[in-house]
Amino acid sequence: MTDHGSWLIRGVTIPGSAKNPTDILLSHGGITAAGTGLSHPGATTLDAQGLIALPGLVDLHTHLREPGREDAETVETGTAAAALGGYTAVHAMANTDPVADTAGVVEQVWRLGRTAGHCDVQPVGAVTVGLNGARLAELGTMADSAARVRVFSDDGRCVSDPLLMRRALEYVKAFDGVIAQHAQDPRLTEGAQLNEGEMSARLGLAGWPAVAEEAIIARDCLLAAHVGSALHVCHVSTAGSAEIIRWAKSKGWPVTAEVTPHHLLLTDELAAGYDPVFKVNPPLRTQTDVAELRRALADGTIDCVATDHAPHPVEAKETEWAEAAFGMTGLETALRVVQRAMVDTGLLDWLGVADRMSVRPARIGRLAGHGRPLNAGGPASLTLYDPAAPAEAVTPGASKSRNTPFAGMELPGRVVATFLRGVPTVLEGKLA
Does residue 308 carry a catalytic annotation? Predict the structure, then answer.
């Protein structure tokens, strides 16, 4: 008789493990054994020869759109996409309708995630009421709610007022919270459409200067040091930003940062055809920026990869560039993009990928049940990945939206299975 609550994963490779290939036994939501020659009567056996086991991926930056924008995405479809990408936890950003600036809204999102069941959903609370940048939202009540919010962000908009940013950092310090800043000086980016440079000039699109991001990051690093509170920098996109963050970290300041998969692979050259699928905030930058972002992720200056999964309905993207919405989907392709940009180039090994896509984002997001080593006694949330799978063109998946910049691009690797606390959410590359 098969015990459907137990899984025996045979012959898998665990990056950094002294014994490879190894077997992993999942039972009762945890890893009950890891080693060679394991057996468990009745367990479902999964042959994992050639596969890599990673702690379940954690995304610090996902737009699930619900409540209010269900035409673009729902918690159900967004978390299904996450599971297919190897994620066991995502942080849902606050720019919903209504905005997630109260305990009631963050609890609604949290409960929708629990109902969907594809992965854990940790709501991100807004820093300011309505994302309007005028007064602080109910940070304390969101922190004390059932959702236990610890990350706060007005993502999509910058907390540009330095006094308000200081007060937010001071407030969340009391409960070990984090302010995640969308670094974009609003005055320097009025009407901006594309990275300021040769391509924007050639296309006649309003330029988006790198300094608009870098100036806010520099200011906020100084504020975080002054207050002694945690700052997280969202979607770093320029070489200068990476340099500032490297300097702040050299001082021992409490600053962390993320980079998106698209900023690790794509450049503003792709805008040459005016296809709004490549319109994103912050914009795609130059090849020099891409190289520096890769280097910063490899050396740990940039802590993690976060997707900034930003789904939009067809009509919001299939229009002229100036009218199109900013944003790209990314949950289902992130690990494959990281393999191409970081692993296949020799910049990161798979232990480094586990660190940048699970361990560190879980730590930054205060998720104790994720990003843990795949040892006996640990949670059975993990991803089985085939890095040798032939490169295949990206096709539409579980997300409700289709605005992926990688459509038709051949990317290596394949997520074979995703387990959330011992229960498969994806098996053989399909939703379980």
Answer: yes
